[in-house]
Amino acid sequence: MPIDFRNTNTVWASVLAETLQRLGLTTAVICPGSRSAPLTIAFAQNKKIETIPILDERSASFFALGTAKKSYLPTALICTSGTAAANFYPAIIEARESRIPLLIFTADRPPELRDCHAGQAIDQVKIYGNYPNWQAELAIPSASRGMLDYLRQTIVYAWERSQFPTPGPVHLNIPFRDPLVPVPDIAVEALETEFNPEDFFAGLEAIFAEESSTRPSLPLLRGAEESTMQQWQKCSKGIIIAGVSQPQFAEKYCSAIAQISQLLNWPVLAEGLSPVRNYAQLNPHLISTYDLILRNRELADKLTPEIAIQIGDLPTSKELRNWLDKTQPKRYIIDPSHHNFDPLHGKTIHLRTSVEHLATNLATILTLVPPLIKGGLGGDLAPATTNISPQIPPLNKGESTQIPPLSKGGLGGVPTSPSHEYLQLWRNTEIQVRETIDQKISEINNIIEPKVSWVLSQILPPATPIFIANSMPVRDVEFFWKPNNLEIKPFFNRGANGIDGTLSTALGVAHRNQSSIMLTGDLTLLHDTNGFLIKNKFVGHLTIILINNDGGGIFEMLPVAKFDPPFEEFFATPQHINFAQLCATYGAEHEVIDDWQQFKQKLSFLPNSGIRVLELQTDRRSDAKWRQDNLRIAN
Predict the structure, then answer these.
(1) Which of 198, 278, 436, 583 has an alpha carbon within 20 to 30 A of 340's alpha carbon?
(2) For residues 358 and 342, what is the distance between their CA atoms, to the nearest angstrom?
(3) Mean pLDDT of the chain
(4) What are the CA-CA distances from residue 97 to residues 249, 320, 544 (Å)?
């Protein structure tokens, strides 16, 4: 029997858990506490929901965030009353900003025990401000049929609001009166004979089946949008920006971007925190070195676009953002959510649709109009498939635009170009810069931070999930992650861009998943060492690639680095931690990596279970100087 009729609280909590299970909930993360006992017992007794106990609320909330990132379904998160709820706040902010579905259930004292120093009672109503998609306080539990109907439908609504129209967190505050444990109540037990569970839960399976098989269908673009697409076709200086993204169906997402690129003959500037670089065979117009290319001011001027299609969030690159802000192309942002993705406040139009729908509509519209000849971009348009032959022919030897190779400090010289000038200039420059930067990095023999992401992009097992920490790792991935066909799956917390809960989120992504990787610096790992407490409940494997430069490497790239004191103590903040001892405390494997061959060997095959740390010890000042010398980054 899914409903526990021992007393009012057990009925209430078990209806809540059973409703969620029938809607499709698979995972609940539970923090210990007394006031939440009815919820804990109800979820623990539901055999179709995996319940994971985690001591630290902040760590628990980020673990839940990671599982939701991986599954694209809500994860339930449960805690007791008091400051326990406050520890969920950073993860809720990240869930809101990165559009990840979470269901937060905070147990609370009943109204009569608030504002009277009853203990472990704080104001939990709307404690998370405006960050939840929706929030409410449930009524005091009641075992009447009418109130159970109210509870069921409120939970259905919470489930829906966590996913539609834009995924994000939903918070329900749940007051409980004593008894909090399942002490029998004869009056409540008698209600069991009158309760028909199949009638009570009728329809929930149908809701789940419909939601899990389809997302809301977006209308085909017509009218003004059709005219917009025809304007795109006429533009010979357009770019597509594939920004930060962790889509559910990566290959379809990348294929759609490739299709748009080839229909328009526009280059795709692909962020490293996007799967696009890991499906390189789909896109002949892929540009991965745009950050370095745009550091050459003369070349950046020649590459000024008239139109830019931005897919989702902008890339991390400050160089790209400054270039867009300076050149002010007409920009179209493609994302189905209601969020504003334009921090530059440019000439921007949001098209609230998915890139997959856009590709379908663009192919339909452009194949219905006569081919255009403008700037050399003529010829028949390709059919609407994902295997479109590009109109710009592959480069042959001798077709170089004769851009001199990179010298110390960046690109030099004035490029010339053949026909198909704009796209060809981007493609030829990409080849030149990619060859130069690859050569520079390949010649590095000592352990240096910028080489780590470059190596990873070439050696990881196919389809490996990798969680990339904030600060320098995300930037090195953008600078150096090499296009490949390994179908690697990048994950990250780029909603609020904080270092909170990085290890816990990575463990959530890796839990019951393919053996996974986490790329992080030392301070970010130290900020969440309580994540190691999840080890005994973690199912799967996570390799942590720890770049230990004894401090905050990103601050070495900022102007404040010139001011010491107080730079070293208050910004770089070295902690001088022995990570071998730290890992031994938590029972995690640890090994120091001394050379690149050893590094490659350790990652060529990933274990099936456990947590291991591969530590690469680097010098943050030397790392910063190498970037400044080779990327022309000035403090």
Answers:
(1) 278
(2) 19
(3) 89
(4) 20, 22, 25
